[in-house]
Write a structure and sequence with these properties.
Layout (H helix, E strand, L loop, with lengths): L5 E5 L6 E5 H5 L8 E2 L2 E2 L1 E2 L10 H13 L10 H21 L7 E4 L2 H16 L5 E5 L8 H10 L2 E5 L9 H7 L4 E7 L11 H10 L3 E5 L11 H4 L3 E5 L10 E5 L1 H4 L12 E4 L4 E3 L13 H17 L1 H20 L4 E4 L8 E6 L4 H10 L2 E2 L1 E3 L4 H7 L4 E5 L6 H18 L1
Parallel strand pairs: 5-17, 7-8, 7-9, 9-10, 10-11
Antiparallel strand pairs: 1-2, 3-4, 6-12, 11-12, 13-14, 15-16, 16-19, 18-19
Helix pairs in contact: 2-10, 3-10, 4-5, 11-14
The structure holds ligand C6P.
Length: 423
């Protein structure tokens, strides 16, 4: 077994070493003390939803106990304090992804709503019959279905960039799909099912050269690595709060200010208008134009706390810790007879999908649960990817910053038992 207590890495600025003591970090997550079926919880399902540190839980509770009121509406003190906290959270998220302006941060429910928003506003206004968009074989259903709805409505053409059998995104094949009709490229930054990190810089550069805009689904990237909107020069970037140790019900759509300014509203209602008469309404500037109704106030404050938490730990320290987990898990699982890792891309985030000869993925998940180990089993909302790989389902262990080498050992040992049961 590998040592897992403490490691050093360069911090985000690359200036000095920071230490990452995973056992201390685990103290921040109350739920990790739970026992499941009499065994210590081994939580390997962070790609589905990550656990929350006390800093996030406390920020939400304190907000509700001390400053809670509706935002952007009241002249009274509480409403002003709640508005300040909500807008401070927007600024935290701006800094977290290095957007140029807080006006580029739209709070929505999560990545699914992000992509639906872009399809329903940018897509409806700027795409017409025969225009092409490019997705990839790695996409989550959230980055497929909204475009199919638009296809039905507008007659756009959907092209699909291929991967190889290891799950690598094939850049030259993608470049061949670009044409003068390509209007938008919508690709995942990290595959939820395989962990593949896609070559986003090259994708963005090639798409821009062809005159297309780019939307990245950053749901699985943001928890694992630092992302920089200005360095990427991406047009839209979508992610959910609950996968980056924040609350459910909140996520961020980043959009370049000049693009957002050209887009019509998504939903109509309170807070997104400047004036309303029965004859006509006028709308606020972004981001408020896209935030109709009472927003998820407390959740936004919690998400701001999650961004602070990740930043304080050090994004590079977290990445290095998770890469060590990935390497060890890949090594231990590869050594198990009858087990095959699905997805061996050159660059991966800490996600390991696998199948076991003669054992259904759901049975693997159920037996692991008896050992207190939580993994996801199924198609991972990526049915076209499963079809491409010729699989019905995989089991998936997805690691977070609180996982340890001992967690990997527990998984490998329990998988040996699964094998014995089905031998
Ligand atoms: N993937 C998983 O177990 P929402 O549900 O809106 O927060 O996120 C949707 C989504 C979009 N893109 C990617 C790449 C994702 O991984 C997800 C969510 C979870 O893999 C639940 S299906």
């Amino acid at each position: 077994m590998l040592a897992s207590t403490s490691r050093t890495a360069m911090n985000d600025e690359g200036r000095h070493s920071v230490s990452f003591d995973v056992h201390r970090v685990r103290e921040d997550f109350p739920i990790l003390k739970r026992r499941i079926r009499g065994r210590p919880l081994v939580y390997l399902d962070s790609a589905a939803s990550a656990q929350k540190p006390k800093a996030v839980l406390d920020a939400m509770q304190v907000a509700q106990e001390t400053i809670y009121a509706n935002v952007h509406r009241g002249v009274h003190t509480l409403s002003q304090e709640a508005t300040d906290a909500f807008e401070a959270a927007r600024e935290k998220l701006r800094a977290f992804i290095n957007a140029a302006s807080a006006d580029e941060i739209i709070f929505v429910r999560g990545a699914t709503e992000d992509i639906n928003l872009v399809a329903a506003t940018y897509g409806r206004k700027f795409l017409s019959a025969g225009d092409e968009i490019i997705l990839s074989e790695l996409e989550h259903h959230s980055n497929i279905v909204p475009w199919q709805l638009l296809q039905t409505e507008k007659g756009i053409v959907i092209k699909v960039a291929p991967i190889d059998d290891d799950g690598n995104f094939l850049l030259p094949a993608f470049e061949k799909l670009l044409s003068p009709r390509t209007r938008l490229v919508a690709i995942t930054h990290v595959s939820n099912a395989l962990g593949t990190v896609t070559p986003v810089r090259a994708i963005i550069e090639a798409a821009h050269r062809a005159g297309a805009k780019v939307l990245l689904d950053g749901c699985q990237a943001v928890p694992h690595m630092a992302v920089d909107m200005q360095a990427l020069d991406v047009d839209f970037y979508a992610f959910s709060g609950h996968k980056m140790y924040g609350p459910t019900g909140i996520g961020v759509l980043y959009g370049k200010k000049e693009l957002l300014a050209t887009m019509p509203p998504y939903q109509g209602g309170g807070e997104m208008i400047s004036t309303v008469t029965f004859a006509k309404s006028t709308f606020k500037e972004p981001p408020h134009r896209f935030e109709a109704g009472t927003p998820a106030i407390v959740e936004a404050i919690g998400l701001g706390a999650a961004a602070d938490y990740l930043t304080a730990l050090g994004r590079e320290a977290v990445r290095a810790h998770e890469q060590a987990l990935l390497a060890y898990a890949s090594q231990r699982l590869s050594a198990l007879p009858g087990l095959q890792i699905v997805g061996r891309a050159a660059e991966k985030a800490a996600i390991v999908s696998f199948v076991m000869e003669g054992v259904h993925a759901h049975d693997i998940g159920t037996i692991l649960d008896r050992a207190g180990i939580a993994v996801r089993a199924g198609h991972h909302c990526a049915q076209p990817l499963m079809e491409r790989l010729g699989l019905a389902a995989t089991a998936r262990a997805s690691f977070g910053l609180y996982n340890t080498m001992e967690d990997v050992d527990a998984l490998a040992d329990a998988l040996k038992i699964v094998r014995e049961i089905f031998a």
